[in-house]
Amino acid sequence: SSSRASSRKNRVYVFREFLWETYGDYLQKDDIVLDAAGGKGDLSWLLKNVDGVESVIVDPRWSKSNHILRSVAYLRENPDAQAARSIPGQPSYQPLAALMPKLPSDLKDLQKPWHLRLLVD
C-alpha cells in the first residue's frame, strides 16, 4: 500500500477536481482548455466526455484513450462492480466509476479530444 496522497492512476481525477474547484466559475461550455504536456490525454478525455468542455491535448506523443474506453465498457456491463467501485474511501474505489452517471449512456457518443502534436524545444 502506498503512502502517497493519490496514486498515479488517480492523479488525473484529483487534478480534474482541482480544476473545477479552482476555475469552475470561469469554465463555460464554449471554452477550450489547452492541456499542455497532456500525455495520454486522460484529462482532456474526462473534460470532454464528463464535463462537456472542449480540451486540446498539446503533446508530441499520440494520445491513447483505449484504457478509459475499456474501463467504461466494463463498468457499463457490470453495474454491480460500478456501484461497488464508486464509493469513496473503499479499497475498491475507482473515480471513473463515480463519474459514470455523467457520461453518455451510449459508448458510441464518447468522443476523443482534439490533439495537437507539438514538440517545443
Low-confidence stretches: none
What is the H/E string?
HEHEHHHE
Q: Report the average pLDDT across residues.
A: 91
How many strands, what sense, and barrel or not for the largest sheet?
3 strands, parallel
Q: Could you tell me how far the N terminus lies from the C terminus, measured between alpha carbons in angstroms?
A: 38 Å
Number of domains: 1
Percentage of β-strand residues: 5-15%
- Number of β-strand runs: 3
Count of helices? Answer: 5
The secondary-structure class comes to alpha/beta
Please state the overall shape, judged from the principal axes of the Cα atoms.
globular
Helix content: 25-40%
* Rg estimate, integer Å: 15 Å
Describe the strand arrangement of the main beta sheet, using strand numbers: 1-2-3
Structural notes for this entry:
This protein has five helices and three strands, in the order αβαβαααβ. It has helices spanning 11-23, 42-49, 66-77, 79-85, 95-99; strands spanning 32-36, 54-58, 114-116. It has one domain (8-116). 37% of the residues lie in helices and 11% in strands. It is of the alpha/beta class. The termini are far apart. It is globular and about 45 Å long. The mean pLDDT is 91. Strands 1-2-3 form a three-stranded parallel beta sheet, covered by helices on one side.
